[in-house]
Structures are given as structure tokens and as C-alpha cells.
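Quick question, first post here. What does this chain look like in 3D?
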Amino acid sequence: MAKALVAYFSATGTTERVAKKVAEAAGADLFEIKPEQAYTSADLNWNNKSSRSSVEMGDESARPAIASHVDGMVAYDAVFVGFPVWWYVEPRIIDTFLEGYDFAGKTIIPFATSGGSGLGKAPQRMQQLASGAHVLGGRRLSAGASASEIVGWVSGLSL
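> Answer (accepted):
Ran it through. C-alpha cells below.
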């Protein structure tokens, strides 16, 4: 298997729990895409058009700052990128992450947590942002995804 990294953004802890299972299944290193300014519950209120998440998602150019950086990104062949689905795509902080590294020649595998929404156009958007990478179609994983389900999915990727 290729040397892999699981990079994830988790606003409420759900994606973090799934990301840890993915990292274990893939034998991958783990990196949290942590915002410089943490999201509060008010920031995440998608019913409020003035909430931080609503404003960011309404602005295609929004790029929330990330608190830390992956050391040695060049060593990874495959990067799993995990996130909650916001407005049917990846949150803008994932865009910040993808634009912050050279992914040329790497495989990016998106995975998302959602109560029911799929990845939408996230893989296509991610392909545009990670120039030179090969972005796979990805998968939505529920918060309760079992270890065996995740192992099956990761094994089927033939990395």
C-alpha cells in the first residue's frame, strides 16, 4: 500500500471519529485540519444566513486559515481528505488545505460524514483545487460506520 495520510476537518467530532477509523484501516498517519479560529455552535448554525459557516459557504473565495501545517507532505502518495458535508460540498477550509500543498502525482480520496447528503460536487471541485492530483470519487461514511465497512472500502481502493 502507498504511504498514506488521513487529513480531516471535524467541526463537531463526528468526522474525527470516522477519520481515526479510516487511518487505522489504511495504516495511515493522521492530521487534523484545525481552523485558526475554532467554530462555535453559533458559527455552525446553517439556518442563520449571517453565521460564519453560512457566510463562508456563500463566498466561493473564502479560505479560512488553518492552525498548523503537514510536515513532509512530499512523502505521501495517497491523501484521504475527510470533512462534513456543508451545502452539498466540502467546507471552505478544505479548499484552504488543498491549495496549500503541491498534490501533483498524488491520489486524493475524499470521504465525508453526513446525515444523508452525498459528496455532491466535492470531488470535482477538489480536482480543480489540487492541480496535478488524481482525485477519486470518494465516499460518504455515516458516523456509525463499522471498522469492517471502512476496511472493506479502503481495501477496495487498491492503493
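The chain has a mean pLDDT of 94.
The helical segments are 14-26, 52-58, 92-99, 122-129, 147-156.
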